[in-house]
Structures are given as C-alpha cells and as structure tokens.
UniProtKB/TrEMBL annotation, chains A, C:
Database matches in Gene3D superfamilies: 3.30.70.3040
Native source species: Desulforhopalus singaporensis
InterPro entries: ABC3_permease_C, FtsX, FtsX_ECD, FtsX_proteobact-type
Membrane-related topology note: Multi-pass membrane protein
Residues annotated as transmembrane: 23-43, 169-191, 221-244, 264-286
GO cellular component: cell division site; plasma membrane
Top-level taxon of the source organism: Bacteria
Name listed for the protein in its UniProt record: Cell division protein FtsX
TrEMBL record, chains B, D:
Localization annotation: Cell membrane
Membrane topology (UniProt): Peripheral membrane protein
Entry GO MF terms: ATP binding; ATP hydrolysis activity; transmembrane transporter activity
Primary site of residence: membrane
SMART domains in UniProt: AAA
Record's function text: Part of the ABC transporter FtsEX involved in cellular division. Important for assembly or stability of the septal ring.
GO cellular component, one term: plasma membrane
Entry similarity comment: Belongs to the ABC transporter superfamily.
Source organism: Desulforhopalus singaporensis
Domain ABC transporter stretches: 54-276
Protein name (Swiss-Prot/TrEMBL): Cell division ATP-binding protein FtsE
Length: 295, 276, 295, 276
C-alpha cells in the first residue's frame, strides 16, 4: 500500500515537473496514432472502392450461333470451371435486338423494316467481386474467347484497364506513404521516449544510489507510459474521427461519397488500435528505461 | 566508543536521530553475526574482537589504461567506529568509498559489509543495503531542479517513510545545518557550501547504520564545519558507523579516532584509535 | 584566417564527438526531405493523371436536323462562348451510319436494306483538358443541351462521374497525408535540432564565459546545419529517385505506367528542393541556437 | 606589490606566464586610463592613487523572493593586487565574483572594470573583456566528456592562439599542477581535486590580466594547495590582478594582502594590505 502511495505521488510529481517533455511525448503519440489510423482507414476503405469499381464489370461473349438449352448448360459449366461467377445470362438475337431498339429510343422506327435477328447472340458474364486484378480479368476473357462458338469477348477493355491501373497505383502510393509514415512514427516515439528518459538519467542514477528498488524506479515510468498511451491514442483516434466527420460533411456533394461509401472504424477496431498503442507505449518506455538502468 | 552490545540501555539518544536506529541495526544484522564469527577466524585482522562493519581484504581497483586507483588495501572498520581517510588529491579516497557503497566493484579482493560480501549482492538485496548506507558524494549529486527539502526527502522516500515523518525530519536537519530559510529553494540556486550541507543532510536523513562522507567540509568555513562535525558525531554516538574522507586537518588532528592515510592507492599509515 | 581555421577545426571536432546525434539529425532531415518530395512528386504527377483521364472525354450532342454550314458556324460560336474547346466536329447522318456499320463489322450486311439516314446527326465536342472538374463538365453538358435543335447530350456520364470522383478523393487523401506529414516533419526537425543544441548547452555556456564571441560560437553550428541540410536533402532526393526507379522497373507491367506516365522531378526542381531544405536547416539551427544563447 | 607603471623594466617574468602579458595589459587599458582618472575624482575611495582594476560602488544583488546576496558593497581593487574574499558559507563571495566577471548584472550600484562600467558592455566588447578575465568557478564548469588538455585549451582557443602555443602552454600548466599523467584523461573520470586543478589551469591559461578564483583549494590537500598558491602568486607577480574567494585560513592568514570579510552580503571587515 505504501508502495503504491509513494509511486502515485511520484507520478504526480513527475507530471507536474516535466510536463513540457511529457506533453511533447503525448503529442508525438497522438500524431503517430493519428497517422497510423489515417492510413489504416484509407486502406480498409480502399477494399470497398475495389468492390464498387468492379460492380459494373461484365464480360460479353459474342457467339456465332444461338446455343440451345443443352449447349447453354455446357457453356455454363465450362465458364464456371474457370472461376466462380456472380451470374451468367444468355442473350438471344431477339433480346439483343430489343436492347438495341431501346437504345435508339425515338429512332427505333428505323429498325421496323429490319430482320429481328441481325444482331449476334451473346453471353453476359458478371464475375465475382473477388476478381480484382486486371490480369485475372484478361485471363478470364481469353479463356472465354476459346469457348466453342465464341467470336469475340468485350468488357469495355479500355475503361476497365484504366480503372484497375488506377487502383493499383493508388494502393502503391498508400502502401509507400504508409511505410514511410510508420517508419517515421516509430522513430519519433522511440526517440522521444529515449530523450525523456535521458533527460532524467541523473535522477534515476541517484535513486539507485540511495537504494531505491528497481520496481520503485520503474513503476512510475511504466504508469506514465500507460497514461501517455491511453491519452495519446484516444486523442489520435478522436481527432481522426473529427477529421473524418469534417470531410464527410464538407465533401459529400451529390453522389460523391454515396458512391464510395466511406465508413469509420467500428468501435471494436478503434478499441483495438488504442489497446495496441497503449501496449507499445508502455513496453517502449519500460524497455528503454530497463536499458538505461543497467548502469 | 563501545561496541553495540555494551551500550548502556537507558542512554538517551540525541533527538536528531531516530530513537529506534539502534534497534533497527540489531534486527537487521544479528542473523549475519554467526556466519561472520565463523569466517572471521581466517582473516588477517583477527586482533580486534568487535563486530567489523566494513572488512576489506587486499582490495584493488584499476581503471582502464593503467590507472591504479587502489592497490591491495586491507582494512577493517568496526561497527560504530568513526574512521578518517586522508591522502593527497588522487590518492584513492573517493574510490575506496565508492567500493564500500558498492557503486563500483573491486578489480581484485574482497569487501564485506556486516559480514556479507558485496560482490554477490544484486537487485532488491543490493537496494536494501544501500538504503542502510548514507553517502554524501564529493560532487553532491543533488537534483538541481528540486528544492533542498525534496532532495533530502528522497533518501527517506525510497524506504517508504511516512510523509509527516519525512517532513519533520527534513525540517530538523535543515535547522541543524543552518539552512532553515533554504527549505523551498531549488538546490541549483544554492551556494556551493549550502549544497554541500544539503548533500550531507540527505546522507544522514534516513538514519542509516553506515554513513560515508566524502570531503564534507571542502566548501565550508570553520564555523559551519564545526556544526557539520557535531552532527556527524551525534550520529556516530547513536550507533552509526561513519567513514569520512577528507583533507581538512582541523577535523581529524585532535580526534581520538583512527586515521588512515592513502598514498598512490596504497595504505601509507594507520594511526590513532585511542578509544578502541 | 585564424578565425576560419579555428571554426573548421571546431566543426571537425564536433562531428567527431557528437556523431551520434549528428547522424540522428541527418537521418531526420533525410526522412523529412524524402517524405516531402514524395508527396510533391505524387501531387505533380496527379495533374498528369487528370489530363490522361480527360483525354477521352467527349460530349456528343444529338441534333434534330442536320445543320447547314451557316448554322454550323452559329453553333460553333455558341459552344465556344461557353468555354474554349479542343475541337468541334459535326457528324452528319451519313457519317453516323458509316460508323455504325463499321461497328457492326461482319454483320454490316444487315444494314443493306436500311435508309442511310436512320441515325440522328450529332456534334462531337472535345473539351479542353483544363476542364477538369465534374461540375464543369455537367454545366457544359447542360449548356449544350439548351442549344437550338439539340435533343440529347451524351458523355458516358457514369464512367466520367466515377473517374472525377475518384480523382477528387485521391487529391483529398494526398492533401491530408501531405499536411499530416509535413506537420510531423517540421516538428521532428525542429525537435531534433533543439535537442542537439540542448545537449551541448553546457559547452555553449562555457564558451560564452571564457569570452568566445557570438560568431565564434555560432559559426560552427551554422556550418553544421549547412552540411546537414546539403547531405540530408541530397540523400533524401537520391533515395526517392532510387525508390522511383524501383517502382518503375517493378510495376511497369504491360501498358500500366505507359498510361500514367510518371516522371521524376526535373534537375532544376530537385536542386530547388535541396536549396530550400538547406536554407531551412541552416536557418533552423541558427535561430534555435540564437534563442538558447541569450542566457 | 607595485602598480604597473612602477615595475622595473628589466624584471624577468616567470616562464609560466607569457612574456608579453604586461605589454598586452598596457596596450589594452591605457586608452581607458584618461577617462578613468577623470571620473575617479567623484568616487568615495579616492584615497589610493593606483589604477583601480575593479571598482564596486554600493553594489547590491537580490535574487527573486527575498534573497539578499549582496548589500551595498563598495570596494576598489588595484591593478596587480592579490585580494582575498572570505566569509561564511552563503555570505555572498561567489555572487561578488559573478558580478565582477559580468556573468550576472547587479541589481543596484556600479561596477567598473579598468574604468569601464560593465553594465553597458555587450556583444564583442563583452567577449573581449571576458577573454582577459580568467575565472575558476566553484563548480568548475568543466566539459566532462573532453580531456583535461582540451578543457584547458578552450580558454586559449577563443582568442585564436596558435595550436603549437596552446599545446606547449597546456603541457606546462599540467606539469606545474602535478597532472602530467592526466593530459589525455576525460575530466569526468578525474578525481575531484584533479578537476579543481584543471579548472584553475583553464582560468590562468590565457594569461589574463584579471584572475578570479572561487574556493581554489576546497578539494585539495595541504601540499597541493601550496602548489596552487605558488602558481597564483607567480601570475600575480607578472602583473595579473587576482581575487580569491576562500574559506581556507592557511592561504590568507599570514599573507601581506588585503582580506575582505563578507557577512550576510555586506562588508564586515577589510584588513591587511601591508605592502600597499
Ligand atoms: N572513472 C575513472 N576512470 C579513470 N580513472 C579514474 C576514475 N575515477 C578515478 N580515477 C583515477 O583514480 C585516481 C584516484 O581517484 P580518487 O577519486 O579516488 O581520488 P581522491 O583521493 O578522491 O582524490 P581527491 O582528493 O582529489 O578527491 C585518480 O588518479 C583518478 O584520476
Ligand atoms: N541564482 C540564485 N538564486 C537564488 N538565490 C541565490 C542564487 N545564487 C545564490 N543565491 C543565494 O545567495 C546567497 C549568497 O550566495 P553565494 O553563492 O554568493 O555564497 P558564497 O559566499 O559563495 O557561499 P559558499 O561559501 O557556500 O560558496 C546564498 O544564500 C544563496 O542561497
Ligand atoms: Mg575524492
Ligand atoms: Mg561560493
């Protein structure tokens, strides 16, 4: 009991006397958590982007002849052999004609005199959303091309390609920035803690010399690390949330963020981030001090 | 000076030292006495029959690149003794005190404190030992951004003394060292002599059983020196073993205590000791 | 002369004796320049992305009647009233028919019996590449819709919208990360310099007390800051260049980076970055020390 | 002790001080003498006709919250004088030296060094003045991670002495202070008394015209104390004004020099001065 009393008094005193550097460390931790969580948020939301962008991806396989029900079954099987797909739809000549007519709108009259089967039949394949790399789409397309009776495969190549490349680029950028930032962050927190402890080395040494036990010396640091971790990460997450809200309010123009539906961390993820940073802070300050105490 | 056991039981202890110093001392060390009595038979200095608080046997200390700070020093300091170490600057006085307080380990030889070899102490046991040794370092080792009172309190806080007891003792000590008005001044703003007294106060605050003082009067005038020495004598009378390293003739010349002179790290002479 | 001799010896000695913290500062500066340049590189290349994405943007205005040469002139004027455009092309009924026939390919035979004017005439407007925001495109489109004789305006709304939104999102992300990082960076460099000088405050104070002039004390710091700025920023830019090369070699899959043609800073921009960071470093260490020297 | 002008021109200067100390001194200060002679007429202590190197008039120094470190101190110290300041711990000795070396500014009163008020000095002029004042601080202010030689060299480097001259002088001083074997030891590893001597060596290395020493023998034994005092006397003989703050009776008791005793920040007595 008198141990904890002394330790807590010690912590209080330290906070009062070294609030400058304590605040610095707190700021560092906050910034680090903010940066980390920010990139994690972008990363986790980028997965959604992928989905959204893949939504409209459909491969259209033009066929020579309209397949009968049996052949349809066979084709379906073959397609599914390559990969699970979201849906397969057979479009007959008539269906294609109707669609075309619809597209012409007011001018559909011009088709009146035409035979209803002048457009080729086709299969519309909507792949699973997991099919996210451009190469896979290409592979799939060339696989479909080789189906018996297929004349041509279309999937809006240009746009799709552009989109996939773009996503890929973005993920590289996010990954690189993330790595850079996390390096910086780790470096910063480690350095700040190191310096805070270095600045009080005289005191630590003296405490050893007057016979303080290791626990007596370490526990206050441990508690300070804990406190800093809790406060820092909470502030970090909180400021990210405020930033997030601000962006959502400020940039949710018509159809903009509805499309890329951004979502914040679930409470449990937030909690996990806080826990991890508390752990890291505590361990960090504990181990740094451990090292310095071996005088 | 008498050995602990022979002390008159009713003797009034001076009020500046805790009344129970004596008892604490007995409780702490009595279990080691047996072991000590057995091992002592093989030692060089068997002549004296008192409990040896500090026992050094052929202790040497070398620092990297050819510095011989101590060379084959053997000495036995009894419990309750007041012992002076003198010698030229660089003779090895401070090094000896550092070895006794186990701030540093000897390169060679054996050091026993109250019958226990210090080289094997570690962790909590070492901390406990240090709590019972008060050291006033030659460079003071004060925390410059804390007040005088806080600096003195540190040595009591580590052994979990109660705040009101600490406060009382600090005020007592400051008064005895003529520093009453410096209670709340940060030590970085004190004069050098005031700092020296604060360092001394910290050393004796926790009523340690052994007090090591390194040049306690280097920055003090004659009057203040006397004040300091009186305080140390009082502590000594209430049972503490005291080792003083000094160059100040006035404090050891006419004293009845033993004086060891070091020269180039070796014992040059060991004189005095009338009362023992 | 003896001044410079003393100062340079001083610098050499400082570098030898405090290489630990000197290295730390150098690392900080390098990392900061790397981070800054990285984001600047992304930002400057993002402008290109915009161009590329806008490349294929064309608005097609369907007309009721084929305009005569005079009317064409009028329309052209009206369109250019809204904004400068890249090009305007009038597509007559016949042109539209030919295109359609071409698109049908092998099946063009089906059109043989049809009147060649069953498709509506149109104007193809390719806007300037500066027309980069979605809103502007929309405004332009609704402006075109109101032209005399226009029935409908098409520009692949869905895809364009998606693209613009995406670019916008990315720029927000880049801007936010950039701000976060530049904050972190400034904080880091300032803190590191501060601490380096704080760690040598004893020495500075002593120098003052033995009668060193301000120049004697400051010049070595000034030179150290200069050296650190030069080395740090050069390393930073160099490592970014290596990173850049690595990405280009590693990710230049077929048509990937050809599309978003990434380019590194021109030598003069690199030099400018180096100069600015040298300036900042020097000023930073000079002013920090200036502050601390007022003892 | 004679004033500078009266010195026999052919007199051999001791080899530990630069031969040109005297001339440097004259060159530096002669342009200020005129002004000084005029202003001195209005001052209190007009009795003595020598050049006053340090002139303090009703100087007080207060520290925040009721600390009176110095109170109305007036004293005039002649060029080439050796002057002792004594007093109890906390009397204000160090404060007085700090004011003279313009490390701190007085709260009240006027301080003139060689006829120039220090309060108006700034920048390069202040730096130049400090180069000509050698101070051995009570807490040494050594750079603990530099060698003894480097520490001593600092005071010469700031006035752009040539490396070979610096090296020679450092070796000379170390020899005279019995520290030859500590040339390359970092000062953090020296004994306290050795540090004190290094601090002193740094103070006199640059052959300053004024030397302020604060408790120069606090950590030194009798023999080393004598060595140090001899060195200071030599410097004094070659023309330097020296002010020593001390509590060590042995070094001022039988000396022919003036001794000022401070008490609670005020001048308590001013005795001695047989030769002047
Ligand atoms: N950490 C160290 N590294 C190297 N040499 C050291 C170290 N500590 C002390 N010494 C050397 O050991 C010798 C003895 O030093 P010590 O401090 O014991 O002397 P001292 O008797 O206390 O002298 P003083 O009266 O000056 O305090 C000295 O020559 C000193 O330079
Ligand atoms: N920076 C400061 N802030 C507050 N008080 C101070 C400061 N410096 C000195 N004092 C006080 O001024 C008084 C005189 O101090 P000074 O250092 O001059 O004493 P001293 O005569 O040198 O004593 P010693 O012999 O102990 O060195 C002391 O009471 C001291 O506490
Ligand atoms: Mg010593
Ligand atoms: Mg003093």
């Amino acid at each position: 009991m008198s141990f904890w009393f002394t330790v807590i008094r010690q912590v209080g005193r330290n906070l009062r006397q070294t609030w400058g550097s304590q605040l610095m460390t707190l700021f560092t931790v906050t910034l680090s958590v903010l940066i980390f969580a920010f990139f994690y948020l972008i990363y986790s939301n980028m997965l959604h982007f992928g989905d959204k962008l893949g939504d409209d991806l459909r491969l259209i396989v033009y066929l020579e002849e309209e397949p009968g029900p049996e052949l349809q079954q066979q084709l379906r099987k073959k397609i599914e052999q390559f990969d699970q797909v979201e849906s397969i739809r057979f479009v007959s000549r008539i269906d294609a004609y109707e669609r075309f007519a619809e597209q012409l709108g007011d001018n559909r009259g011009v088709l009146d005199d035409m035979p209803k089967d002048f457009l080729p039949p086709s299969i519309e394949v909507i792949p699973l959303k997991t099919l996210s790399s451009l190469n896979q789409v290409k592979l799939f397309s060339s696989y479909l091309r080789k189906l018996a009776g297929a004349t041509k495969v279309q999937y809006g190549q240009e746009w799709v390609e552009r989109f996939y490349n773009f996503t890929r680029l973005i993920s590289i950028i996010v990954a690189l920035s993330g790595i850079l930032l996390i390096m910086t962050t780790i470096f910063m927190v480690a350095y700040t803690i190191r310096l805070t402890i270095l600045g009080r080395q005289d005191e630590l040494e003296l405490l050893k010399l007057v016979g303080a036990t290791n626990n007596y010396i370490r526990t206050p640091f441990f508690l300070e690390g804990l406190l800093q971790g809790v406060l820092g990460s909470t502030f970090g997450i909180a400021s990210l949330y405020i930033l997030f809200q601000w962006i959502q309010n400020h940039f949710s123009g018509p159809g903009f963020l509805n499309m890329f539906e951004f979502s914040f961390f679930s409470p449990s993820v937030s909690l996990a981030i806080i826990c991890v940073s508390v752990l890291l802070c505590t361990l960090g300050s504990y181990s740094t001090m451990h090292k310095f105490l071996r005088i | 000076m008498t050995a602990l056991g022979a002390k008159p039981p009713g003797m009034l202890l001076p009020d500046h030292c805790d009344e129970d110093t004596h008892n604490i001392y007995r409780r702490r060390f009595c279990n080691q006495e047996l072991h000590h009595n057995v091992t002592r038979m093989n030692k060089k200095s068997v002549s004296r029959q008192q409990e040896a608080m500090i026992e050094m046997i052929k202790v040497s200390k070398y620092y990297p690149v050819n510095v011989v700070a101590l060379q084959d020093v053997s000495v036995s300091i009894s419990t309750g003794e007041l012992f002076f170490i003198i010698g030229k600057s660089g003779a090895g006085k401070t090094t000896l005190l550092k070895l006794v307080s186990s701030m540093e380990l000897p390169s060679n030889g054996l050091i026993e404190i109250a019958g226990k070899p210090t080289s094997k102490l570690k962790g909590v046991k070492l901390a406990r030992l240090r709590q019972r040794i008060g050291v006033a370092y030659q460079d003071f080792k004060l925390l410059a951004d804390r007040t005088a009172a806080e600096n003195i309190a540190i040595s009591m806080e580590v052994s979990y003394k109660k705040p009101q007891i600490i406060r009382k003792r600090v005020r007592e000590l400051l008064e005895q060292l003529d520093l009453t008005d410096k209670h709340g001044t940060i030590t970085g703003e004190l004069s050098r002599g005031e700092q020296q007294r604060v360092a001394l106060a910290r050393a004796i605050a926790n009523s340690p059983t052994m007090i090591l003082v390194d040049e306690p009067t280097g920055n003090l005038d004659a009057a203040t020196t006397e004040r300091v020495m009186n305080l140390l004598h009082k502590c000594n009378k209430s049972g503490a073993t005291i080792v003083i390293a000094t160059h100040d003739e006035t404090i050891y010349k006419n004293s009845p205590h033993r004086v060891m002179e070091l020269k180039h790290g070796a014992v040059h002479s060991l004189t005095g000791g009338l009362l023992i």
